[in-house]
Amino acid sequence: TEYVIAVVGATGAVGKKMIEILENSSLPLKKVVFLASKRSVGKQISFQGQIYQVEELTPESFNGVDIALFSAGGAISERYAQEAVNRGAVVIDNTSAFRMHSDVPLVVPEVNEAALAAHRGIIANPNCSTIQMMVALDPIRQAYGLERIIVSTYQAVSGAGAEAIEEMTTQAQAMLNHEPVPTPEILPCGSDKRHYPLAFNVLAQIDEFSEAGYTLEEWKMMNETKKIMADNQIKVAATCVRVPVMTGHSESVFIQLKHADVSVKAIQELLTAAPGVTVQDDPSQQIYPQPLTSVDLPDVFVGRIRKDLDDAYGIHLWIVSDNLIKGAAWNSIQIAESLHRLDLVRVSDKLGGDN
Ligand code: A2P
Ligand code: 11C
């Protein structure tokens, strides 16, 4: 089998990375279709040495498509994902539109690839900040049990999309040139009322505010963790913060294990052997993960592993990964590769009728 793949949001920050990764993927490709809004029609995309045109997304775009990779925002997924499935495509959705639906697997292949078997056409790719945390913590959970996670994030502007990158870059240039700074219109969150500069600043808001004083990004980390780890008892609290970094999300994570007195060395060895993780942890040589050194790499980098000095069950870690790669494009294409390997690139004929 060779697949026809559609990239929905091909001109976006994540879509562009999907295209780069597809070029080198082991997936057998028959054809790739590049879809975006009407604004982008006719834009050129070079892929495997040839030039392709961006096409406008319409329901008919999915005729003949086997796998559709969606990364054009939740509203587009809500409008077109089921349409794509009805036309025979398996959808891998990188938005938050379907993640918590009970019949939609939410998958990080290193952690819960087996959940793919139950798919009914749509598979959700978790939020970037959740994915990197799951890759690093699941091996620890399997070995020692996880009671609680308390995470604070330092998230890059590219997570907010191409327009947000542009806004922050313009601000930084204006500030350095002592020129007037254009009024911010996007960050911290395009759909919210107030906007603040991110250049030379830190904003403790990602996405809109929701229940109990937490933002939606924080709720995503809390809810998605429980679903991916298939554990509703695990205690999770998140504080999500935007920093003026271009690419690479960082996380300061405190975990409470179910076993006391686990050594730093044991955790280092566990993570060194874990799939998708690279340990960068040597304080004597000032070795620890950094967003700049994570860019364009598929791994999740872990360092600063140390015991809590007051809590025998407590461990601290510093987790960094490229939010556009493992946090989005690579995890989506890994899901596609898993579906291919497990012979799950198909939508059952019965699907539309019996749910
Ligand atoms: P376009 O460039 O034509 O607006 P990002 O996450 O970097 O902001 O990118 C969003 C992606 O979603 C872009 O590829 C964008 O295409 C695409 N997109 C936005 N609105 C639509 C729409 N109405 N139909 C199809 N694609 C859309
Ligand atoms: C950010 N995590 O860094 C967000 C972007 O639910 O897929 C991804 C939002 C999502 O701004």
Describe what this molecule looks like in 3D.
It is a single chain. The chain has 355 residues and is of the alpha/beta class. Helix content is 29%, strand content 22%. The protein is built from nine helices and 14 strands. The strands form three sheets. A six-stranded parallel sheet has the order 5-2-1-6-7-8, with helices on both faces. Strands 10-9-11-14-13-12 form a six-stranded mixed sheet. It has a two-stranded antiparallel ribbon with strand order 3-4. Strand 6, helix 2 (74-86) and strand 7 form a beta-alpha-beta unit. It binds adenosine-2'-5'-diphosphate (A2P) and (2R)-2-aminohexanedioic acid (11C). (2R)-2-aminohexanedioic acid (11C) binds at residues 95-96, 127-129, 155, 159-160, 206, 217, 220, 323.
The chain-level structural class is: alpha/beta
Note the gap between the termini.
Answer: 28 Å
DSSP, total strands: 14
Q: Report the bound ligands by name, code or SMILES.
A: adenosine-2'-5'-diphosphate, (2R)-2-aminohexanedioic acid
N-to-C series of helices and strands? EHEEEEEHEHEHEHHEEHEHEEH
Q: What is the alpha-carbon Rg in Å?
A: 20 Å
- The parts where pLDDT drops under 50 for at least 5 residues are 350-355
Mean pLDDT figure: 97
Shape: globular
Query: Reading side by side through the largest sheet, how are the strands ordered?
Result: 5-2-1-6-7-8
Q: How helix-rich are the residues, as a percent range? A: 25-40%
For the largest beta-sheet, the strand count, sense and barrel status come to:
6 strands, parallel
Strand content: 15-25%
How many individual helices?
9
